[in-house]
Write a structure and sequence with these properties.
Blueprint: H1 6-20, H2 27-39, E1 45-51, E2 60-64, H3 73-77, H4 85-88, E3 95-98, H5 105-108, H6 111-117, E4 127-134, E5 139-147, H7 155-193, E6 198-202, E7 208-211, H8 213-219, E8 224-225, H9 237-245, E9 256-260, E10 267-278, E11 284-295, H10 312-319, H11 323-333, H12 338-345, H13 349-363, H14 368-377
Length: 386
């Protein structure tokens, strides 16, 4: 191929763009793009998407051709707090070549070199790189190609990288945004998993897009989000369970319902509502997502053995209750009378009354009804950690 054939370079770049824009949010798709890009280079190349952790965003370390686990992200990228002078004024989309043996000293002694490049036999072999992310303070994200042999990129190598670099800027920014959103989404899912209340999200087809741990415990289904491989296919097992159990078309309940547990028949409370969003004019419009809340009034009953975790530890930590006090409080929260609670716990009614007085003192309440209301508004809604 002629080294300066612009049509051939543009055709190659165009073929790579489809892979590039599939990459944001998916390390595997980035590896596919990097592999295809490296295959177009003049020497056997290895590619990296390398990003420095910043406030509010994780680092990035995605590679093809060498083993570079994501668990190294912070350790191998955080040392880049001092930028080479040549990076200071390099614009986003800028392409640069580092000849063999001429890497900046700070870069050459970094953990990235020591723990990734050097073990793979890639140290000092030369680089072709594009700056694909920077802020006012520093360059922070690079598309980096190197080789297993001393490599001076050809004019065609550089021209192809220059064609792709502006698109890599956009793809890296999208990846960065998706990483940050994933951090927030993971935190939201973890928070929902701490609720005693079951929470289910149904998509526009009535498929279960998400179910929290309490839903999983109550109905015997898998927690978490939908398997991406199942999207657009037949309903998964969770969706089939919910469709059989919930009233309404396509497994979508209508408002509030009292339903029977599909196995033991105990009553469960279900309430559904469409999630709203604001349009550009600030008006709220229905989303295609419905949230279903599921409550178990018998949570904690002795015959509800698969209910979410014991509240005793939570109550003890929050109100400094002894184990005996926490067990009594939990029994009362399960809608037992003091006499029934004493029998279930194997203590006398006199001991139960004395224990209850200590609970009143520690929680600042004076009546059993006030104690139950306090517990329901606080720790009664939160599961112990998994």
């Amino acid at each position: 191929m002629h080294p300066e054939d612009p049509i051939s370079i543009e055709r190659t770049a165009w073929n790579l763009l489809g892979l590039l824009y599939d990459a944001p949010g998916s390390p595997d798709a980035w590896r596919t793009f990097l592999s295809a890009l490296c295959a177009e280079m003049s020497a056997p190349a290895v590619g990296f998407l390398l990003g420095i952790p910043r406030s509010g965003r994780p680092g990035v370390l995605i590679s093809n051709g060498v083993r570079a686990s994501d668990e190294w992200t912070d350790r191998v990228t955080r040392p880049y707090t001092v930028q080479p002078e040549s990076f200071r004024d390099l614009p986003e989309g800028g392409v640069f070549v580092v000849p063999p043996g001429e890497a900046h000293e700070r870069f050459a002694t970094s953990a990235f070199h020591q723990h990734v490049l050097e073990p793979a036999g890639l140290r000092g072999t030369g680089f072709l790189a594009a700056l694909v992310g920077r802020d006012d303070e520093q360059a922070h994200t690079f598309l980096l190609l190197t080789s297993r042999e001393a490599w001076r990129p050809t004019e065609r190598d550089v021209a192809l990288m220059e064609h792709l670099a502006p698109h890599c800027v956009r793809a890296a920014a999208l990846h960065d945004r998706l990483l940050r959103q994933d951090v927030v989404s993971s935190a939201v899912r973890a928070a929902l998993d701490q609720l005693v209340l079951g929470v289910v999200l149904l998509d526009f087809q009535g498929n279960v897009a998400y179910a929290n741990r309490s839903t999983a415990d109550m109905l015997g289904v898998e927690p978490g989000g939908m398997d991406p491989a199942l999207r657009g296919t037949d309903a998964d097992a969770r969706t089939r369970v919910l469709r059989d159990w919930l009233p309404g078309h396509g497994g979508r309940p209508d408002g509030a319902s009292v339903l029977r547990h599909p196995v033991d028949g105990r009553p469960l409370l279900a309430f559904s509502a469409p999630l709203a969003r604001e349009d550009r004019d600030g008006e709220s419009t229905p989303r295609d997502i419905v949230v279903v809340f599921i409550g178990d009034p018998h949570l904690g009953d002795a015959d509800t053995t698969d209910a979410p975790g014991d509240l005793a530890d939570v109550l003890g930590e929050l109100y400094r209750l002894t184990p005996a006090e926490a067990r009594l409080a939990r029994a009362l929260l399960a809608d037992r009378t003091l006499e029934d609670a004493a029998t279930a716990l194997g203590v006398t009614i006199g001991t139960a009354r004395t224990t209850l007085k200590r609970i009143f003192s520690k929680t600042g309440t004076h009546r059993q009804s006030s104690l139950i209301r306090l517990l329901l508004m606080g720790p009664g809604q939160v599961r112990p950690p998994a």
